[in-house]
UniProtKB/TrEMBL annotation:
Residues 1-21 form the signal peptide. InterPro entries: AB_hydrolase_fold, Peptidase_S9_cat, Peptidase_S9B_N, Serine_Prot_S9B/DPPIV. It comes from Alienimonas chondri. This is Prolyl tripeptidyl peptidase. GO terms for molecular function: hydrolase activity. The keyword Hydrolase applies. Its EC number is 3.4.14.12.
């Protein structure tokens, strides 16, 4: 997926512009005094390094129904009793670090893991861990369940591999008795024999053979990693009983290759006379309309043996090969897969190439012999596309929960094991964002609670709720405004609530399962807040009028949601000056960037606002996360409605008495970069824009993301033509800064080169910065300084001055090159 990359930002609360969606929480912040100095670039990205976030606890983890782990910066981690707050050592960190080092773990890895046991996989009891160091594997036995906190035994570390190859994507079996890992695209296991101090490594078993970069086992290829597996390379899953492993095969032999070059490598003529100095990466990357990888799912015993491959087809059920658009295109997709709780049954999500449907299918997995015939439990077809709902969540009675957007909002539905719908669990004009846990206490005849994160009470926030499996008893458990991230203890007796809001730095609370506050674990108090001016914050709503579509239809009227950060002391109702405004967006379908959260202090936005440039962060309608129907509206025509929305933003700003309408800027990265470049080539509303990591033609992007939103190029040529910004290069208005990573393996530099070539051929001026060794994400101080200087130059300095320090071009050149004023 094209990444949602947001600049660090900051805001505090002020009244919204009159008549424009003032939030009832809006109020003047007494700390936002106008006489404090503006923020400096060095305060955020330089030597001053002001603290705008404050310290927050990291790595808190439940070890059971009533106690949790607190990692240590110094000393040893502690286990805390939730009810009382009583703490004791989880284990001796120095002893564990020494044991790891003695076993061969790199010193800094051993030290970090001993104090913060993260970055590894654990068994279900948290008795054992499996970690990687310099390409080899090591197992740890803590001497007892839950890190051995109730045991006097010292932690033990055992080296499992010592090879010149890299062992990666390792995972312990649920029972902690077997380690699985991938080496050179093949799947292996190593048994852990004995317990405690007697633990040793058994013989290694190869579960697959013949793997390589073109046919992979257990490690995803690029497009599955990026678009379907939530950026996880792991392509296998342990069965709950630890006896078998479901493993994916990815066949990329027919997938096109894209080359990414590192042109900055040194040429070593003395030792390698033919060395070009180029470091060449070749990635199998299927572009929209091209051949997809061919995939299949199999089951293999943890000790080795033949792989039993799943045949997803059955009577009346199409197989993967028939779910593509053309012969030999790789067929359909296995969007997700997993095990039923007993470990004797697999489920998988089978989709057609463009993801217009999702079929949930189940396959019996007997201990021996062929796998069972596939059966379809249910099928999703509603809306313009169907995205993978993630894992099925199973209840004690064998029923399961599925997240679905079938009514235009993401909600939970409960099904019997055979796929019969039992009941709707949640409903209404709001969304379930995450299913946190199904919790059942140890009490006799206890009923299950479903804990979920959702937006029922505010689409700008996220809150923890719980509900019964039959849909009754829906209750909000986190009363404060903002975005809440909750970790629910097994059984649901307690949960840790980490939250923040735009006017509230991060806080971490411990609550009982019904939401009752037990105690505050941490409250961030950023020291940098008192050192500079802050700017003033307002929620805004911007109307959009109905507008014609390229296909002859009409986009209806609507509303855009965002927030505004204005310079300190600016009276929006009765301003004494007009100020420029810099607009920020991302814009990808159902990918909101406007949330009620602290967001690390919003230093970038605060930097602009306290130096006289108002900031508006806004979501186009399709990105607002206010229901999937809004996102589906842009299917097949990415950018068209969003451009209308960003033009409406500019018109609204120009109508405000405090806004200098001749000095409006726009920026975004990735999809936001595409949006910025599209708006500047399709409207004359903005004086300047910064487009980072931009797609400039969606024929250049990958199959799974693009065809989900656009269909194939063969089926929708006109829609793809609209995304080709090179065809509109002659219509560029305003000053454009293009930024791209020279080794971007996601949105390839080809996008920038095509657009740059088109702009040059049409005699258009623009600015360009390439970061030769950066990928899709760019975050250097140079990058931030570049944008800071560009925004100040275009928003604060005399706009009639040439970018090169001279006079404006002569009239003969002005008509061709200087179309920068809105």
């Amino acid at each position: 997926m094209i990444s949602l990359r947001l600049a660090p930002v900051f805001a505090l609360l002020l009244l919204a512009p009159a008549g424009q969606g003032q939030d009832e929480r809006g109020a003047e912040d007494p700390k936002a005094a106008a006489d404090l100095r503006p923020m400096r670039f060095e305060d955020v990205y330089g030597s001053a390094n002001l603290d705008l976030t404050g310290s927050t606890p990291r790595g808190l983890e439940w070890l059971g129904p009533d106690r949790y782990l607190v990692p240590a910066d110094q000393g040893s981690p502690q286990v805390v009793e939730a009810a009382t707050g009583e703490a004791r050592l989880a284990y001796d960190a120095a002893a564990l670090s020494a044991a790891l080092t003695d076993a061969g773990v790199k010193g800094d890895v051993a030290e970090k893991f001993s104090r913060r046991p993260v970055g590894a996989t654990f068994d279900e009891e948290r008795r054992r861990a499996l970690l990687e160091s310099e390409g080899d594997l090591f197992a740890v036995d803590f001497g007892g369940p839950a890190f051995g906190v109730d045991s006097d035994a010292a932690p033990l570390a055992v080296r499992l591999t010592d090879t010149p190859q890299t062992e990666e994507l390792s995972e312990l079996s649920p029972d902690g008795r077997t380690a699985a890992f991938v080496r050179e695209f093949n799947l292996y296991t190593i048994p852990l024999i004995g317990v405690g101090e007697a633990m040793t490594a058994g013989p290694e078993a190869a579960l697959t053979v013949g793997g390589g970069d073109l046919i992979r086992y257990g490690k995803a290829d690029w497009v599955y990693f990026e678009e379907l597996y939530n950026r996880s390379w792991k392509g296998y899953r342990w069965s709950p009983d630890s006896q078998r492993i479901a493993v994916m095969e990815y066949d990329d032999r027919a997938v096109g290759t894209f080359v990414v070059l590192d042109q900055t490598a040194a040429t070593d003529i003395e030792t390698r006379p033919d060395d070009s100095g180029q470091l060449v990466e070749r990635t199998r990357y299927p572009k929209a309309g091209a051949t997809n990888p061919t995939v299949r799912l199999g089951v293999v015993d943890a000790t080795g043996g033949p792989i039993r491959w799943v045949d997803w087809s059955a009577d009346g059920l199409p197989g993967l090969s028939s779910l593509g658009r053309t012969s030999g295109d790789g067929g359909g997709l296995i969007a997700h897969y997993g095990w039923f709780p007993e470990g004797d049954r697999l489920y998988g999500y089978v989709q057609d190439r463009v993801q217009s449907m999702l079929s949930v299918r189940a396959v019996d997995v007997p201990a021996e012999g062929p796998l069972g015939e596939a059966t379809e439990l249910l099928k999703e077809t509603a809306g313009a596309w169907v995205e993978s709902p993630g894992d099925l969540e199973f209840l004690p009675d064998g029923s399961f929960l599925l997240a679905s957007t079938r009514d235009g909002w993401r909600h939970l539905y409960r099904y019997s094991p055979d796929g019969t719908l039992r009941n709707v669990v949640t409903s209404g004009p709001w969304e379930v964002r995450d299913l946190n846990q199904v919790a059942v206490s140890d009490a006799p005849a206890a009923e299950a609670w479903i804990y979920l994160t959702g937006t029922k009470d505010d689409p700008l926030g996220e809150f923890l709720y719980r509900v019964r499996p039959d849909g009754s008893g829906l209750t909000r458990l986190t009363p404060e405004d903002g975005v809440h991230r909750a970790s629910v203890a097994p059984g649901g007796g307690f949960f840790i609530d980490a939250y923040s809001a735009h006017d509230t730095p991060p806080r971490t609370l411990l609550r009982r399962g019904d939401g009752e506050l037990v105690r505050t674990l941490d409250e961030a108090d950023p020291e940098g807040l008192t050192k500079t001016a802050r700017g003033t914050f307002a929620w805004v709503q911007i109307p959009v009028a109905a507008a014609p579509r390229a296909d002859g239809g009409m986009d209806p009227a609507g509303t855009l949601y965002g927030y505004l950060l204005t310079p300190p002391g600016l009276n929006l109702a009765n301003p004494d000056r007009r100020v420029p405004v810099w607009v920020m967006t991302y814009g990808g379908p159902h990918a909101s960037s406007v949330k009620d959260e602290w967001a690390k202090g919003r230093g970038w936005e605060r930097l602009l606002a306290t130096n006289g440039i108002a900031v508006l962060k806004i979501d186009p309608r399709a990105a607002s996360a206010r229901g999937w129907a809004a996102a589906w509206a842009v299917h097949g025509r990415l950018g068209e409605q969003e451009t209308t929305d960003m033009a409406a933003v500019a018109d609204w700003l120009k109508a405000q008495p405090w806004c200098d309408g001749d000095r409006l800027g726009l920026s975004g990265h990735s999809y936001g970069g595409y949006m910025t470049a599209r708006v500047l080539t399709h409207t004359n509303k903005y004086a300047a824009g910064i487009a980072g990591g931009s797609v400039t033609d969606f024929r250049n992007y990958d199959t799974i993301y693009t065809e989900r939103l656009m269909d194939t190029p063969a089926a929708n040529p006109g829609g793809y033509d609209q995304t080709n910004l090179s065809s509109k290069a002659s219509d560029l208005h305003g000053r454009l800064l293009l930024i791209h990573g020279g080794m971007d393996d996601n949105v390839h530099p080809q996008n920038a080169w095509q657009f740059v070539d088109a702009l040059q051929r049409r005699g258009k001026d623009f600015d360009l910065m390439i970061y030769p060794r950066d990928r899709h994400s760019i975050s250097s101080t140079h990058y931030r300084r570049l944008m800071w200087d560009f925004i100040r130059e275009t928003m604060l300095e005399d706009s009639s001055r040439s970018r090169h320090g001279g006079a404006s071009p002569p009239a003969s050149a002005q008509d061709e090159t200087d179309e920068k004023s809105p």
